[in-house]
Amino acid sequence: MKTLWNLTVVFAAWVFVGSGIASKADSLANVSVSGTVIGASGVHTIHVALWDSTGFMRQPVQEVQLRPGAGCSFGFSMAPGRWAISAFEDINENGACDMGLLGPKEPSGFLRPFHAWHKPRFDEVAAQIDHDISNADVKLR
User: How far apart, in whole angstroms, are the C-alpha atoms of residue 1 and residue 102?
Assistant: First the structure.
């Protein structure tokens, strides 16, 4: 009888601890963000980038290139947190968003629209993403 009691206690502890681990793993699960780039000509490559605060506007965490004729839909998978998503149409196909005196020379935009006359800061264009989003559209201007 004592052995059965010990097994029951061990099993209950295993279930309790295991459920805590499972819920912690669930909270660390990735989220997916997908959307469409709006306003592109369809003639040039579109670059869509996912940014975190540490590499903002220097090194994207993920990047997708949408070739002409391939459509304008994109998707990313990442841990929940604060993220920025940008897109630009590479008119001269040099792989970079060319900048002028007053901002980008090529059509560009962010998931969270930005309209100021200075280089965007992460906090101005980032959003807290804690769940899947299927309509994360970026409008180029």
Answer: 81
